[in-house]
Design a protein that fits this description.
alpha+beta; Butyryl-Coa Dehydrogenase, subunit A, domain 1; Butyryl-CoA Dehydrogenase, subunit A, domain 2; Butyryl-CoA Dehydrogenase, subunit A, domain 3; 3 domains; eight-stranded mixed β-sheet; 10 helices; 15% strand; acyl-CoA dehydrogenase activity; oxidoreductase activity, acting on paired donors, with incorporation or reduction of molecular oxygen, reduced flavin or flavoprotein as one donor, and incorporation of one atom of oxygen; Acyl-CoA dehydrogenase
């Protein structure tokens, strides 16, 4: 099980401000401050710049622990991990110096090549509109994919040089502030633009774990809320039981929900450990992605079972369970956890001549 305590100071701050994040469609200032103080934004900052450069398992554990308190804020921390990893891969060595001057800076980004770049004598002029950039209103740097004269590339731009269009209005993961970033003929120094290289299998798995971690945490948070209900004097309505725990059926469903959350968590950590090993074959990588997608579905199924236990009261706006439900429903449907594409890729890998498994 995730061993990050849900009662540590950072988690308590995130939990206390989770509703505020939803209200304003962006993370609470207090929560961001707590993450920065706790070193969360430095999880994937290289050690040479004062960061942790944590591995996939550590990252998965930290994000799940934070997601237990506020899935949206944990999601932003995961997006920061992905963005910093992209910077390191695209701008090796001293080319990263200016980006990591502050090891605890929040990064955001988009791997969707939604912009165009044209080289000029002064650098590269970029124009584009990147949707769904989590944490963009509060980030210092944005890592953006674009085509530069036909070549897939990445650019790293101060968010202050871009326009934020507040387009994120969703049922779940509201507090991620995943709005759109816009550039209009913005001049970027040539040193901040680099051709994209192929992603390693380990990197692709890491990116999926940064998405799944907050979802697993949200399912664990929902389980916390359900356990609290069982510890209260709540009884199954229209029954002779005096408490929920007296019902064998309720105990069975609680066990089912807990099993699904535990399975999702264990799957994530197992894949994270595999992601830190070199030499993954195409079939092995595809299989691991399929397992992560299944873990996302386990989280959804678990929360649905918990809502069955709560009944209609679980959907009351004052009940935290409905927020976890919405966050899991949205977060688990991120493209990195797409189950039918995961099945498709695994099947293709199994019949590929290059498959050595």
């Amino acid at each position: 099980m995730i061993d990050d305590s849900p009662k540590d100071e950072t988690s308590e701050i995130l939990r206390a401000h989770a509703e505020k994040a939803e209200q304003y469609d962006r993370p609470a200032t207090e929560s961001l401050g707590a993450l920065r103080k706790d070193g969360v934004f430095a999880l994937r900052t290289p050690r040479a710049y004062g960061g942790e450069w944590a591995g996939a398992e550590t990252i998965g554990r930290r994000l799940a622990g934070l997601g237990r308190a506020c899935p949206s804020t944990a999601w932003i921390a995961g997006a920061c991990v992905t963005a910093k990893n992209l910077v390191v891969g695209s701008f090796p060595g001293s080319r990263s110096d200016e980006f990591f001057a502050d090891p605890d800076a929040l990064f955001c980004g988009s791997g969707v090549p939604a912009g165009q770049g044209v080289r000029v004598a002064e650098g590269v002029r970029i124009t584009g509109r990147w949707p769904n950039v989590s944490g963009c209103e509060d980030a210092a740097w944005a890592v953006l994919a674009l085509a530069v004269e036909g070549t897939l590339s990445f650019t790293v731009v101060p968010v202050a040089d871009l326009t934020v269009d507040r387009t994120w209005h969703m049922a779940g993961m509201r507090g991620t502030g995943s709005h759109s970033l816009v550039a209009d003929d913005l001049l970027v120094p040539a040193r901040r633009v680099a051709a994209a290289s192929a992603f390693a299998a380990q990197d692709l798995l890491l990116y999926s774990i940064t998405v799944l971690g907050p979802v697993v945490g949200a399912a664990r948070g929902a389980l916390d809320a359900t356990a609290a209900m069982f510890a209260s004097d709540r009884k199954p309505f229209m029954s002779t039981y005096s408490r929920m725990g007296e019902s064998p059926g309720a105990r069975h469903w609680l066990a089912e929900a807990a099993h699904l959350v535990n399975r999702a968590e264990n799957t994530m950590l197992t894949v994270a450990r595999a992601a830190e090993s070199a030499g993954l074959s195409g079939a092995a990588s595809a299989r691991l992605h399929m397992e992560l997608a299944d873990a996302g579905r386990d989280c959804r199924s678990a929360v649905e079972r918990m809502l069955d236990l709560h009944g209609a009261s679980g959907f009351a706006t004052g009940n935290v369970l409905q927020r976890y439900w919405r966050d899991v429903a949205v977060g688990s449907r991120h493209p990195h956890l797409n189950p039918y594409l995961a099945v498709e890729r695994f099947g293709t890998a199994l019949v590929s001549p290059e498959n050595t498994d």
